[in-house]
Amino acid sequence: MFQPVGPVILAIESSCDETSAAVIRNGKVLNNIIASQAVHQKYGGVVPELASRAHQRNMVMVVEEALTSAGISLTEVDALAFTRGPGLMGSLLVGVSFVKGLALALNKPLIEVNHMRAHVLAHFIDDPKPTFPFLCLTVSGGHTQLIVVNDYLDMEVIGETQDDAVGEAFDKAAKIMGLPYPGGPMIDQYAQSGNPKAYVFSKTSMPGFDFSFSGIKTAFLYFIRDERKKNPAFVEENLNDICASIQHHLVTMLTEKLVQASEQTGINRIAIAGGVSANSGLRNTLKQLAKTHNWDLFIPAFEYCTDNAGMIAMAAHYQYQKGIFSTLDVSPLARMPI
Predict the structure, then answer these.
(1) Each residue of 238-279: pLDDT tens digit?
(2) Between the CA of residue 227 and those of 125, 146, 175, 200, 290, what are the distances in Å?
(3) Does residue 326 lie in a domain region?
(4) Which end of the chain is more exposed for a tag (fewer CB within 10 A), N or C?
(5) What's the CA gap between 33 and 12, in Å, rounded?
(6) Does residue 332 form part of some domain?
(7) What residues make up the domain containing 109?
(8) How many CA atoms within 13 Å lie on the side-chain side of 67?
(9) Is the CB of residue 313 less than 8 Å from the CB of residue 24?
(10) How many angstroms separate the CA atoms of 33 and 99, rounded?
């Protein structure tokens, strides 16, 4: 029997330091092209001006590759999707301007996508897919949120960081130890050979389901400073145990709130999203908790954890179905509620 071909959407992601393009047809993500920016490594963090320049260099390349590998032309695209925010203003501006130019030239509709909502909807790219409602712990370098997901486009943030994000805490701890950027994956790597209970750090208590990570960054800075006074080679001699301990501490801060949220809402379908969801310590802890609390646990593939256009395409697909489009006067938003 003939099956009609659904809408074809070209999606662009440029919220931080990943330039990405993806094509989705009838709800199926056909590809997910990502160009990373190594230029930031020597600075120990993302430099906004360099990020926006790199987006300008990479944008045409990733779009052409996405279209070519999907076997479609621009004229076959039904809509153009883009990340409106949140993110770095200069990076967002490159993506928004590029897509608006295409939309004007091709007379195609625009779909603006919330970056954080897209992280959640990455769970609907591949099977298994969660059913509603579910709890999603969204963790990245810029955000830490607990979200009740009632539907594809109906989400409620019930808790979030009141200062720094957990991904920033990972990267800051790595920088304090002298590890290269991005430091979070380096901590995860060394932690796998260390003792997670070798060192104990104090916790910051926050009401409800909110988080705070600024205190642990300061405590870790003083801890390393004081230990180096006693032994200048302290970090080098104990790197695995230090990494395992700080990772265990941060993961515990996250999962304690998640357990509380599950118990209070009665929701046992649990998902994680965002760049930090690639962390093996977090993944393994959640798998253990899923057995203890009888959770249905959903963890996205690694390529859909970090910033990528595949998740933007997935979010745009559901907005297209609802007829939610943008106008050509749309502008990027550095801060954007989910």
Answers:
(1) 999 999 999 999 999 999 999 999 999 999 999 999 999 999
(2) 46, 35, 16, 14, 37
(3) no
(4) N
(5) 10
(6) no
(7) 8-121+305-321
(8) 16
(9) yes
(10) 16
